[in-house]
Amino acid sequence: MLGGNDAHLRLSCKTLKQQATIAIRHGKQAACYHRCPMKLDPVSLRLFVAVMEENTIAAAAAREHLAASAVSRRLADLEDALQVALFTRSNKGTEPTAAAFALLNLARGVLNDLDGIATQMRDYGTGVRGHVRVVANISAITQFLPAELQSFLEQHPQVDVRLQEQISTAIAQSVAENAADVGILNEGSYGERVTLLPYRTDELVLVVPTGHALVRRKSVRLADALPFDFVGAHPGSAINNQLTRAAAEAGLPLRLRMQVTSYDALCLMVNAGLGVGVMPRGSAALYRGTLAIRTVTLNETWAQRRLALCVRSEEALSSVARLLVEHLRAQPTGPSP
User: Fold this and answer.
1) CA dist 184 to 131, 305, 324, 337, Å?
2) Segment (H or E) for 109
3) Does the first or last residue of the chain, that is N or C, have fewer Cβ atoms within 10 Å of its Cβ?
4) Checking DSSP bridges between strand 182-186 and strand 159-165, what pairing results, if any?
5) Region 89-108 average pLDDT
6) Which residues contact 108 (CB under 8 A, 6 or more apart)?
7) Residue 44 near residue 6 (C-beta atoms within 8 A)
8) What is the tally of structural domains in the chain?
9) Nearest CA to 130 among 105, 156, 163, 164?
10) What tens digit of pLDDT does each residue of 268-326 get?
11) Which residues contact 180 (CB under 8 A, 6 or more apart)?
12) 77 vs 70, 73, 122, CA distance in Å?
């Protein structure tokens, strides 16, 4: 068993053996259906999660600064303790079993709880009483979260909020797998493992250089912009997916000249005359005063979007995560200015 046998565990096993001997002496059935109490080592659980996230034992060992053989031994010990095969092994490497994927979510939850205990105890004297892991898409980060997180932390300085940017599909997966407590993403269908709560609305607009042919138009259809080169967001982003669908429905090609990973890069490319782009109005407003760009209203129903808060369930929220969700839901639900 992981972590060695302490005195209590040895006593428990000795007691079971004594009971079995007594049962035999009295002619009773000697089959024992109770095993010694299981002891799971958090270190082994953390190494297991690392192997699942890195896909190989070697990569996990490098990440955790351990020898691969030590990680392999820990995994074998974990399988012995759980009495289940977590990996199938061959000369090609290891492959996770269904049990491994089930354990992954459980292990992340346990490790997060342990980290939370350590963090709260370590920071107790400084006033920090909890932490919340948040993942959000770039639209929420650039339009809403700076002011909303600032006001939340002013009201609750004892809470530590950790924020990471992801695309909407990855956000739903992170929340479902307990890699994050709260997500903010585009409203959509992400499966039964997560719950969506109303958050905010925003509006997509066309961003063009100041001298562009469409700059004087009050509004345009996407078909009006499709003859021009586009600067797009990174692959898999909600806006890129929407543009691809809308262009296909219009029967016109999307001339995606380049793809970037941030709105500031998109605006810089548009400013340089390298194409037009689509982004939220509130995000574009951050750059209109410093770059030679303009925004044009998109006369499309899909240009009006809804953002949602994503949680595993409201009941599963920790007290500090619930505080943050309630704060975010209490904010105005209209679009950004």
Assistant:
1) 17, 13, 12, 19
2) helix 98-122
3) C
4) unpaired
5) 87
6) 49, 177, 178, 179
7) no
8) 4
9) 156
10) 999 999 999 999 999 999 999 899 999 999 999 999 999 999 999 999 898 899 999 99
11) 133, 134, 135, 164, 171, 174
12) 11, 6, 30
CB 46 within 8 A of CB 114: no
Of 266, 195, 200, 197, residue with least CA distance to 229: 266
Res 175: pLDDT: 96
Handedness of CA 153, 155, 157, 161 (dihedral sign): negative
Say which DSSP state 330 is in: T
Residue 249 amino acid letter: E
Residues 178 and 97 grouped into a single domain: no
Contact status, residue 207 vs residue 158, Cβ threshold 8 Å: no
158 and 78 in a single domain? The answer is no
Residues 170 and 311 in one domain: yes
- Give me the helix-helix angle, 42-54 and 57-64, nearest 10°: 120
The answer to whether residues 38 and 1 touch, using CB atoms and an 8 Å cutoff, is yes
Mean of the per-residue pLDDT values of the chain: 85
Query: Is residue 13's pLDDT more than 60?
Result: no
β-pair partners for 164: 135
* Top-confidence residue, 129 or 194: 194
Strands 304-311, 182-186: parallel, antiparallel or unpaired by DSSP?
antiparallel
The verdict on residue 57 lying in a domain is: yes
Locate 290 and state its tokens.
Answer: 């410093």
Does residue 83 lie within any of the structural domains? yes
**Do residues 323 and 194 touch, judged by C-beta distance below 8 A?**
no
pTM of the model: 0.64
What is the average pLDDT across 124-150?
A: 85
